[in-house]
């Protein structure tokens, strides 16, 4: 299978979906720029033109409502936010209307298949308002589906699945992953929504990770293998619906669970997955579950503070070793150098 | 232009009549506390829904807000499905999942109503976007109140609809109050909502919202422009709510003093139903006997519908998880 | 100590705070009506007049920003939402600005002591958009404090504490509790923010409950006592900061944990508290933790569906018994009749 | 009225000069990739900040948006604290916690800037509410771009400010673009933002935003009204951003084609610095030597400040949790 970057995979998924379904259109700030959302909408614009890929003013709430209204008439709008932090402004339409639409009208008003693509920022001084990840916040509410592709294949596959789904789906794409390469099938193969993925098999510890933390977990697992520790890495992929079965199967197998998330701990993914294990796989747990998440403060800007703020591969590896009551040697070497140069 | 035929005028009257008699009956029944759903009755404001909806075509779509019964009914919704929804029955238009503020009836061009102020203004704009993209001659209409014009989403939608020249008619029912708050605590003095809409380059008109013929005529005029591709339009209908904000009582029954009984009575003098009836009689477009016969017919429809609704079935608890995603 | 209703206690807390601090003012839809937010702002209006208690147009986002701007100039605004569901529209100001203000400006821009009071609805056909409780959603974000008074004393005490705190605080008040009576001190005694409360001591099972579920848990505990089961009930009170110490002490004592929340399970309070126990009190747990939350769907309207949607005292009691591997007799009798007549 | 003194005119020029030289120097240094914070430079738009801030009193407060350096500096902010913030140093105005878009300087009447469009329009309105409640003669000012006028919060704030007659001046820097989107894809053709503001009953003026004297005069005039209790005002300043939306380069360096080099050059012909300088010279209010001496002074200030900023200290990792609640 050929390799694509995450960005190329997002683009290919979008283009193939648009080929299959003429009802799909793409809008949002900057979707028709030459830079096209880090390149992910450029090909769609080239292929399908400005009638299907077009810019929008800065009006997050109404734009989401507009997408809902178009969806109610048979369209499949894709609304893109260059940063998901702007979506707070659209929460009312998304949570109070799109998520509830099918249910609240007793199934009689049809469905509103709006897809929201939103980019999660990280680092390079983006600061507190441009680097949050709203996945748990959104996924608290029934009616939405919320997915986070980590690997290029899922960047494409989840895009395809979202654009075939009949309900509202939010795709949170991590900015730090856009350059990541990996195998991606050429055919339009959707990644089913609501299904986690065991991306690395192991026997000693289960690490359930979301988004960028999957890549960090894989890096940690590779290093830990050298130490004789076998780590199973589960890419959560979908935070609503949550694939409880895959997670529980892994936890029951290894008996140890670490959850690594790209957002905060309180009321986040790391707590949810930990609670799931404690409720449904309790008898198989060999020790306490562990949660790894952002430091409990808004995102700072200055580089040394950012370094302290974000968990990474070495943090995961250290935590895994401590769960096994082993002390860690110096692990910082496994963290890649931060050579990000923008555009942020 | 648009001088309505006698047939149209008779239909307009009948529509106002049907709305009035239905809401009055529902309000009476609501006092039994068997309809467990917060309800905003539209008594007194019928001419807006009746006048605008008569000007629509079958393929047009209507969106509404919390005070939605009139729009639902004027757009052809059944009294039975409405009453059943209020009674929480599975036969309700939203199967007892939505309640009074969340009605739907896509089969007759009523998409949805919603309880969050301003929400459906954007949604209607989005349906209009779909129509424009498809090049179909359909129009989307949003009904909303004066308070929705305080929410930012209204202006975001105006700006978008005008920028894209979308076929949407935005109808504001200005009944002078948001819950118990009069206009002057919410808008600068001298405010003309039409001036605001015009500043966004919409064609905008204000009309006597208690005159169903005037509403119909203004709506038809604006809709002509919308259909001709001249972009969105805004229609402000000045009217008045007779009952309390939410619930079936008159404010004076509840000893509320945010507005005076005199003010209410002055507006009741301008009753849209009586005015429409008087006009028909004066023009010889209907006789007193006809008006009375229509009333009897409507009452019959309503009585039969509410009885059937009340006798409807409760949703099964097992159906709780139907239609989540 | 004299008894007050929850509504009276909210009112008294507000009035006493306003007496102490002339910088406090109250605004929001309907605060100056004769019905005054279920009576809770009536006395404040009577005492302090329309210059300190005044209505607002429907403009949730800007109003929150306005409160922030007033707070930055030394005021202590109280913004009231008749339903907290309307707050989605204000999330940007609340989460992207108020919560981050102190941190993001390095402590140099002072603080913005905005207090948001918002009512949580339940039942009587209020439906999906008027009966959510956004506490976990808000509490995910560092910088906010989020509290939920359950008992009248805390309705007053948390109001006082919020109005003495220097940062933004959200108080979520449960509509079903407004009529509840209980002892309330006459003096202005604040309930410290971030401190949970053991409202009933017990030895067999810990029930950590939020808001209305505290009352349901107490009812369940009273019934279970007759069955010889000793339940400790912890009123969480504050969901950010979370009082981990009190919760953990109780779990360590009883070895069993049930968490009962007024919102959904996924990424909610029930998961957070369960995760906490599984991470930090694992060795003391005698069995799996249990979570009780709303059914995993939007709130329906029809009465029989509402009955199936909401957990209540009997649900808690049944769950506790099953955690102890005991079968439950008919417990429905402990649930109070629903005689709500409005105003909703 | 408000014919500014020679002293004022000289100060206005000096302010524009200081903003220009600082931003140009920061933009040059930014290319070293040592300032790790997304930065929106204000080169070309200096006259707005300089003109408005000169018309303010010490006790007035200013709010800004993402493109905030000019406002921060014009309001008396130090180049050192700004540069240190860009370098992520503990000496930064926000202690390296905010970055380029989150500046603060309450000591000199610059409250905050924020990166979310429209946010500070409401916040400034709220500060004005506090001033009105306290009966103090202070004014709040918000600077924002043309795109913020697409966000609903702008209209919510206008409506509130006018309803309550608040002492707030809303200054829109209309630079014709939102990122790479020109006005015509975002606003209906024929749009006049002043018309919109006027429909909300604000006094509204449009001014040449590249003419610092004109900006100062218009701002002074509107501020007079604000201080006299005539309620809020809106000032639209037509201007142009020279550099790319975010970052230190010219668009043509990056091969972007959303706007033409000719358009840029036409606007550079209208350079606010050169125009102000030419005016001073023409009026005999300054000599060429003075202009040059001022430039040397400013460059000296800037050079010293950036060197000191770069040599500042990194925040301690242990301070990560400072100031959370
Ligand atoms: C976003 C939002 N804020 C507040 C409310 C509460 N609310 C419900 S109806 C209403 C008054 C609406 O007034 P208006 O829009 O004029 O319609 P009317 O009731 O007069 O028909 C208010 C404030 C709401 N439903 N949604
Ligand atoms: C709510 C929100 N939506 C989108 C953005 C992304 N964004 C940042 S700056 C910008 C353009 C703003 O244009 P304008 O307000 O005209 O200011 P200018 O950059 O031209 O000075 C956009 C869209 C944002 N920061 N906040
Ligand atoms: Mg009204
Ligand atoms: Mg601009």
Automatic annotation (TrEMBL), chains A, C:
- Ranges where the Transketolase-like pyrimidine-binding domain occurs: 4-180
The record's annotation in Gene3D superfamilies points to: 3.40.50.920, 3.40.50.970
Q: Which InterPro entries match?
A: THDP-binding (IPR029061), Transketo_C/PFOR_II (IPR009014), Transketolase-like_Pyr-bd (IPR005475), Transketolase_C (IPR033248)
Q: What protein name does the entry list?
A: Pyruvate dehydrogenase E1 component beta subunit
An example molecular function term from Gene Ontology annotations: pyruvate dehydrogenase (acetyl-transferring) activity
Print the keywords alphabetically.
Oxidoreductase, Pyruvate, Thiamine pyrophosphate
The UniProt entry, under Pfam families, shows: Transket_pyr, Transketolase_C
TrEMBL record, chains B, D:
What InterPro entries does the entry give? DH_E1 (IPR001017), PDH_E1_Alpha_Subunit (IPR050642), THDP-binding (IPR029061)
- Where along the sequence do coiled-coil regions lie? none
Question: What are the EC numbers?
Answer: 1.2.4.1
Does the keyword RNA-binding belong to this entry? no
Q: Which CDD domains match?
A: TPP_E1_PDC_ADC_BCADC
- UniProt entry keywords in alphabetical sequence: Oxidoreductase, Pyruvate, Thiamine pyrophosphate
- What region holds the Dehydrogenase E1 component domain? 18-317
Q: Does the keyword Oxidoreductase apply?
A: yes
Cofactor(s) needed, names only, are:
thiamine diphosphate
Instruction: From the UniProt record, list the reaction(s) this protein catalyses.
Output: N(6)-[(R)-lipoyl]-L-lysyl-[protein] + pyruvate + H(+) = N(6)-[(R)-S(8)-acetyldihydrolipoyl]-L-lysyl-[protein] + CO2
The molecular function GO annotations come to:
pyruvate dehydrogenase (acetyl-transferring) activity
Q: What does this protein do?
A: The pyruvate dehydrogenase complex catalyzes the overall conversion of pyruvate to acetyl-CoA and CO(2). It contains multiple copies of three enzymatic components: pyruvate dehydrogenase (E1), dihydrolipoamide acetyltransferase (E2) and lipoamide dehydrogenase (E3).
Protein name, per record:
Pyruvate dehydrogenase E1 component alpha subunit
Organism expressing this protein natively: Azospirillum rugosum
């Amino acid at each position: 299978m050929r390799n694509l970057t995450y960005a190329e995979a997002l683009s290919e998924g979008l283009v193939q979906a648009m080929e299959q379904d003429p009802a799909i259109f793409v809008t949002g700030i900057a979707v028709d720029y030459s830079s096209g959302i880090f390149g992910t909408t450029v090909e769609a614009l080239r292929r399908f033109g400005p009638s299907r890929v077009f810019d929008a003013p800065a009006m997050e709430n109404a734009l989401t409502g507009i997408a809902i209204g178009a969806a109610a008439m048979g369209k499949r709008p894709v609304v893109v936010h260059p940063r998901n932090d702007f979506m707070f402004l659209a929460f009312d339409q998304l949570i109070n209307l799109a998520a509830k639409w099918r249910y609240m009208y007793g199934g009689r008003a049809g469905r509103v298949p709006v897809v929201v693509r939103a980019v999660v920022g990280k680092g390079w001084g983006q600061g507190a308002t441009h680097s949050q990840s709203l996945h748990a916040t959104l996924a608290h509410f029934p009616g939405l589906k919320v997915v986070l592709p980590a690997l290029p294949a899922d960047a494409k596959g989840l895009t395809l699945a979202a654009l075939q789904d009949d309900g509202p789906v939010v795709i949170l794409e991590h900015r730090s992953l856009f350059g990541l390469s990996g195998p991606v099938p050429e055919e339009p193969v959707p990644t089913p929504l609501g299904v986690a993925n065991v991306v690395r098999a192991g026997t000693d510890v289960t690490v359930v990770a979301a988004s960028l933390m999957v890549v960090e977990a894989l890096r940690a697992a590779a290093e830990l293998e050298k130490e004789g520790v076998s780590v199973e890495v589960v890419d959560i992929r979908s935070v609503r619906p949550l694939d409880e079965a895959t997670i529980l199967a892994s936890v029951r197998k290894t008996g140890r669970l670490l959850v690594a998330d790209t957002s905060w701990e309180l009321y986040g993914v790391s707590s949810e997955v930990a609670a799931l294990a404690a409720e449904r796989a309790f008898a198989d747990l060999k020790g306490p579950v562990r949660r790894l998440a952002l430091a409990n403060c808004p995102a700072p800007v200055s580089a040394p503070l950012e370094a302290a703020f974000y968990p990474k591969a070495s943090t995961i590896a250290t935590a895994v070793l401590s769960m096994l009551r082993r002390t860690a040697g110096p692990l910082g070497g496994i963290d890649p150098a931060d050579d990000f140069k923008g555009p942020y | 232009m648009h001088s309505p035929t006698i047939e149209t005028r008779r239909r307009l009257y009948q529509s106002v009549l049907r709305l009035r008699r239905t809401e009055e009956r529902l309000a009476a029944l609501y006092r039994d506390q068997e309809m467990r759903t917060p309800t905003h009755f539209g008594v007194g404001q019928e001419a807006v829904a009746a006048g605008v909806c008569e000007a629509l075509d079958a393929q047009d779509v209507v969106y509404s807000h919390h005070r939605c019964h009139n729009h639902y009914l004027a757009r052809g919704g059944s009294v039975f499905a409405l009453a059943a929804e209020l009674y929480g029955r599975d036969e309700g238009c939203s199967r007892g999942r939505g309640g009074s503020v969340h009605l739907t009836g896509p089969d007759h061009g009523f998409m949805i109503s919603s309880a969050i102020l301003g929400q459906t203004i954007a949604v209607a704009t989005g349906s209009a976007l779909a129509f424009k993209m498809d090049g179909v001659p359909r129009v989307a209409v949003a009904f909303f109140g004066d308070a929705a014009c305080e929410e930012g989403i209204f202006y975001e939608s105006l700006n978008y609809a005008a920028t894209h020249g979308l076929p949407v008619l935005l109808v504001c029912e200005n009944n002078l109050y948001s819950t118990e708050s009069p206009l002057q605590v919410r808008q600068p003095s001298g405010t003309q909502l039409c001036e605001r809409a015009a500043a966004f380059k919409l064609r905008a008109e204000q009309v006597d919202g208690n005159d169903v013929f005037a509403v119909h005529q203004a709506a038809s005029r604006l809709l002509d422009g919308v259909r001709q591709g001249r972009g969105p339009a805004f229609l402000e209908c000045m009217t008045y709510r007779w009952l309390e904000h939410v619930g079936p009582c008159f404010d004076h029954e509840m000893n509320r003093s945010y507005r005076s009984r005199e003010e209410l009575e002055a507006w009741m003098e301008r009753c849209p139903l009586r005015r429409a009836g008087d006009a028909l009689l004066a023009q010889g477009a209907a006789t007193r006997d006809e008006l009375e016969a229509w009333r009897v017919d409507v009452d019959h429809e309503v009585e039969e519908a509410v009885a059937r609704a009340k006798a409807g079935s409760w949703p099964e608890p097992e159906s709780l998880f139907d239609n989540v995603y």
